Amino acid sequence: MNYEKLTILPCHDPEEAKSIFETLIYEEAYLLLVVLGKDSSAKRILELGTKAAGNKQDPSMVVWISEPEVVADTLSNLQDPKRFLNNLSSIRAFALSITDEVVDVIKVQEKPLNILRVWKSFMLALKG
Amino acid sequence: MMKYVFTLSLFLIIGLETAFAQSVWKLKEQRPNNKLYELDSSLAHHNVDISSLIYIQFDKNNIRRKLLSASNQEVEVEMLINKIQLLERITTQGLKSIPEYTQGMDAYAKAKNIEEKVKIVETMGQSFATLALELMYVAEQDPELSHMLNTNLEKVASTGFANSFTVLLQTTKEYVSGLENKLSQLVQKEGLYIQLAATLHSSKGGTGQPIHIDGFDHIKPPEYYDPYELNLVLTDEQIQELEALKRTCDSINTIGIPALIAQKKEQLRGNLKKILLELDSLVTDLSDQTKQIEVSDIPVESIRIEYKTFKQNIVALQTAINTLYTKYFEDDLSFAMVFQSSFLAEIRNIMQQTDLIYNNANKINRLIDESTASVEENVDSAMGFLNKTLEEFGIKQINLSKKKMNILYSELTGYRSFNEISRLTASFSDKIIKKDLKDLPDQAILNIKHYAGYREEGDNIVMEMRGGRKEQKPKTIEAAYFSLVKTQPHFVTNVGIAFVRPNGANEKFTAVVSSNTLFKFGTQAKNTFYRKYIDLGVGINVATLNFNADNPFEFGAAVVLSAFNDYLIGGYGYNFTQGKGYLLVSIRVPFLHKELIY
Question: What single-letter DSSP state applies at residue B235?
């Protein structure tokens, strides 16, 4: 796991978690891959995501929200013209562009789940 | 199933965009001064030196693809070719997008606020991301490529987007090379061959002269000719022109220029009329013959459609000829109308209509050829009759008319268009070798200098590559057209009418025949405007004068300057027989001595 590219939201402290998440979205210029949940597929995406996020120079970051309900409000307020986040329970991760728009989702059952798939999410975020 | 249809459409649609965009060769021109120039392979037409060597570097991959495309209609092959072309484009453009992204990220690191950073990412990462995504979409439909990309990305992903994309593109290149091998095997299985031929076409018309290309034909090269050599001896053609000019001079000196121009115009008008009448009679004949066969009599649909268009085009041409004839020839209108642009437009319209009929006729013949079985079964039927009509009568006659119309148009406008050049073809006689694709060398030379024989500025060379399966008729894969220009300094000799005025108070200008030997400066082949229209020259004019009416053999020489492609020549000379100086002005008026002869 590349921890330089990972931000773990402190879900035991909902206020702090929300604050960090909103700072990353609205006050920093990052392409974000937001990973939801704590099952094995979420952990697999975390591993692949922190690797696919590249190096320090790339404007990319992975955010892990092990308990998505703590930031439910923030999630519901995201720009999501294609309504990717309508059914959160079926989603394991999603990508946000530099202008904070949801541009891709990785579903729970999605296969193959490999580094190429996660890299594609970052490229969709980069394209915006 | 949907996935398959999507992939198929993706490759076919994207493939169409690039399928024939890539050239099968790269061309370089070596001029007589040994300088090498790369010719733009995206263009079909090039101006080259009259004594150049054209180096042809073959792109075997593109040749193979085009041959397979031309010879094999199977969707799988088409898809394979399109996929290769698509991936090659992504690789080339992708590699170019990486530096822009890296530069953008340097700026991102230095940016001071969020707005600036957002703007940088939005602009500098666009083409990078678009091309990366294009590659992802192709990989999603291709498990083998996807597996290769994933394996290599695993190894380098943490080194950054730029490096990862570089590795993905290198992997794609390796994958494409594997696809090329598959294609190569297909070529061997299909037994494909190519032919390369070049033909020199004189700007004066006539049949073309095949040019030998080492390794590609058994053509015997003609005698070596150096167009840059200073040759003071007049050619047979120039001597004939001198004799004709002598008669013109006599007319000018006796009846005067206005009367002579009127006479020549009338001659031109007569020739125009003659061609139109000939063409009208040919089309009427065709119309009568095709009236015997109804469209519904044609048993094969593709031929029926073509035949229907053929009949419609015949009617359209007849109407166009009648309109032109009534408007300009039936009434006794001023001949000045002939030089109006509307007149030329109508001539062009007739040329286009003639062309359409010729193409229809050719297509019908080809379609009949391709469906031999049907023709044999219907030998006495409409198809058999149609075949006979078109083969024995139609095409040859229409082609003759087409040529006449082209000469007429060139004479009227003084212009040879690229449209006309692009209609020229290379001749593929049985001396052109059918070369197995595996025996194709990396390079060939079109040696205009040594193998093209006698040629003049303004002549054109067509080089054409054909190919296909051994048992099939070959198809054109690519063609290049070269217009010949003298790019190096040289001398020219020409003949023309000059007006001379001896020194003295009451002397007048009289017309005489003369010959010029002029030095011409070098020019770039690209700049044909200078050569065609400005073309300055300096040299000597030699004239047979007649200052003294009793002595028809007076001889004079003058130092002259020429401009506008020798249409205007002026200078000062000395009559050696009479011991008297004279002024000389020469203005070339094409239709004064050029006649339309059929």
Answer: P
Interchain CB contact of A121 with B (< 8 Å): no
Task: Confirm if A35 and A45 have CB atoms less than 8 A apart.
Answer: yes
CB contact set of B325 (below 8 Å; sequence gap of 6+): B273, B276, B277, B280
Tell me which DSSP letter residue B295 carries: G
Question: Which chain B residues have a beta carbon less than 8 Å from that of A31?
Answer: 121
Which residues have a Cβ under 8 Å from the Cβ of B243 and sit 6 or more positions away? none
B251-309 tens-digit pLDDT = 888 888 778 777 776 776 777 788 888 888 888 888 887 777 788 777 778 888 888 89
**Any residues with CB less than 8 A from the CB of A77 and at least 6 apart, and which?**
none
> Per-residue pLDDT tens for B34-82?
999 999 877 888 999 999 999 999 988 888 878 877 766 566 777 788 8
Phi-psi category of residue B125: left, alpha or beta, with phi > 0 → left and psi -120 to 50 → alpha:
alpha
Which of A22, A98, A106 is most worth mutating to test chain B (most B CB atoms within 10 A of its CB)? Answer: A98
CA distances from B253 to B245, B248, B511 (A): 12, 9, 6
Secondary structure in 3-state letters for B462-524: EEEEEEEECCCCCEEEEEEEEEEECCCCEEEEEEEEEEEEECCCCCCCEEEEEEEEEEECCCC
Q: How far apart are CA A68 and CA A79, in angstroms?
A: 17
B138 touches A at CB < 8 Å: no
The C-alpha atoms of residue B170 and residue B176 are separated, in whole angstroms, by 10
Task: Judge whether B180 and B84 are in contact, CB under 8 Å.
Answer: yes
Strand partners, B56: B27, B444
The helix or strand, by DSSP H or E, that contains position A65, with its residue range, turns out to be strand A60-65
CB atoms within 10 A of CB A81: 8
d(CA A118, CA B327): 75
What is the gyration radius of the CA atoms in chain B, in angstroms? 32
Listed residue (A3, A66, A59) closest to A34, CA to CA: A66
Calpha distance B347→B320 (Å, rounded): 9
Residues near B409 by beta carbon (within 8 Å), at least 6 away in sequence: B344, B347, B348, B351
What CA–CA distance (Å, rounded) separates B384 from B380? 6
d(CA B438, CA A66): 61
Is there a cis peptide before residue B299, judged by omega within 30 degrees of 0? no
Q: Does A2 touch chain B (CB under 8 A)?
A: yes
